[in-house]
Amino acid sequence: MAKEIVLIGRANVGKSTLFKELTGKKVRVGKRPGITREAIKVKVGGVFYVDMPGFGYMKNYPKGKQEKTKRFIIDYFEQNRDEILLTIQVIDASSFLDIVGRWEDRGEVPIEIGLYDFLNDLGLDVILAANKMDRIANPDDALDMIVEKFGMLPPWRQWLDHVAPISAKKSEIESLKKIIGKKIAVNPR
Ligand SMILES: Nc1nc2c(ncn2[C@@H]2O[C@H](COP(=O)(O)OP(=O)(O)OP(=O)(O)O)[C@@H](O)[C@H]2O)c(=O)[nH]1
Ligand SMILES: [Mg+2]
Asked: Ligand 1 mean position to 168 CA, how many Å?
């Protein structure tokens, strides 16, 4: 029986802040990327929540280590696929569109889109947690543009089972908790 809920995403998007909110466990969070360096597991009810290191470019973080982290993350999902009930891909909604734009200008697939496709191709149930919504002036417009980047047609409200706008730092994570609750209810222990 699948029993892990795994948080994944680029460095510094707020995974550990969200993890604290979901589990009550005090983990390190920080302004610099690369704070979390290994998978951290906490059991809540019958479910294990897993906080993962961030992937992608990190200032002042050696390239070799970045590659290692990426390998670690890919291996983790491939090896534990059958244990994973839900994957929560966290993005920083306030910088996402700018960053994606830069990748697209270079003619590259943005790393976060690549990860999303990889996870879906593995057959995982992937929820998009659009974090740092407190920084966004026009949430509906931003979310419409964001979901479209992941291949979901706007309006974003069509995707309420897959997309959860949250602000982990402000403890505003109800939309995500709802999705998690539903998933656990149809997969009882
Ligand atoms: N404005 C705002 N800031 C947030 C929010 N959630 C997290 N942050 C901040 O974002 C920064 C990174 O938070 P972390 O939770 O450490 O991020 P992470 O994704 O775990 O980072 P790594 O472990 O380095 O991959 C911290 O300064 C947090 O306070 C949010 O909802 N709104
Ligand atoms: Mg972290």
From this structure: 8
Q: Ligand 1 atom 8: the closest Cα is on which residue?
A: 14
Say what the pTM is. Answer: 0.94
As a whole number, mean pLDDT of residues 88-97 equals 98
CATH superfamily of 4-186: P-loop containing nucleotide triphosphate hydrolases (3.40.50.300)
Q: Which residues line ligand 1 (CB under 6 A)?
A: 9, 11-17, 29-31, 33-36, 53-54, 131-132, 134-135, 167-170
* Residue (of 175, 186, 189, 188) closest to 22 by Cα position: 175
The ligand whose atoms approach the alpha carbon of 17 most closely is: 1
The string of pLDDT tens digits covering residues 26-48 is 888 888 767 777 889 999 988 99
